[in-house]
């Protein structure tokens, strides 16, 4: 018994790990974003603030896509960014810079947040005044459906996902957004 070493076997889960590891995400994000920001800084000294802001937003979104590959939301975000880039590069013949913020896909999240805030405020108001009658189940179902619609608007490509997939994708999307905020705060603190 003493001569035999205990053999350990690595246990692999059937499903691949869906949550991105922070170190891998951070490394990929920084490797993509820092050179892109340096290129923007070097080449756009005389450009308008809005133009630079749009280019930076695009590069931040592309860094997110590059760092979190393999998710449905990442693929949807990449498709939106490529569609936006193709529309604006073919129409203007130039880079993706534009001063019109309404067509920028990275602004779609801020539009969604505005709608979500309106929906949530309305739901909170209604939740406080629900009558105790047979309509409670119907009201709860309506509230759940409206909350699911809000979640679908928050995640890129959420409209095309079933509820189970959306919840799984939302978990990875939120964790990647948290890591993105941490990296961007680090970059802002480092440069200030």
UniProtKB/TrEMBL annotation:
Composition bias type Low complexity, residue spans: 89-112
Keywords: Nucleus, Transcription, Transcription regulation
One Gene Ontology biological process: regulation of DNA-templated transcription
Annotated GO CC locations: nucleus
Xref: InterPro entries: bHLH_AtIBH1-like, IBH1-like, IBH1_N
Residues in IBH1-like N-terminal domain copies: 23-83
Classification via Pfam families: IBH1_N
This protein's record includes keyword Nucleus: yes
Keyword set includes Glycoprotein: no
Region (Disordered): 86-112
Subcellular location: Nucleus
Protein name as catalogued: IBH1-like N-terminal domain-containing protein
Organism: Arachis hypogaea
């Amino acid at each position: 018994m003493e001569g035999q070493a205990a053999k350990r076997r690595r246990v692999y889960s059937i499903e691949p790990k869906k949550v991105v590891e922070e170190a891998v995400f951070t490394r990929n994000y920084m490797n993509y974003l820092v050179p892109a920001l340096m290129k923007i800084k070097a080449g756009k000294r005389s450009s308008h603030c809005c133009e630079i802001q749009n280019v930076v937003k695009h590069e931040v979104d592309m860094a997110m896509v590059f760092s979190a590959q393999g998710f449905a939301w990442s693929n949807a975000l990449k498709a939106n960014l490529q569609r936006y880039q193709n529309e604006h590069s073919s129409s203007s013949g130039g880079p993706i810079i534009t001063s019109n913020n309404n067509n920028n896909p990275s602004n779609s999240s801020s539009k969604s947040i505005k709608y979500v805030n309106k929906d949530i405020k309305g739901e909170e108001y209604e939740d406080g005044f629900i009558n105790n009658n047979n309509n409670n189940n119907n009201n709860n179902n309506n509230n759940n459906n409206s909350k699911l619609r809000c979640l679908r608007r928050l995640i890129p490509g959420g409209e095309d996902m079933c509820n189970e997939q959306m919840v799984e994708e939302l978990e990875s999307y939120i964790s990647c957004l948290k890591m993105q905020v941490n990296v961007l705060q680090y970059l802002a603190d480092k440069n200030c």
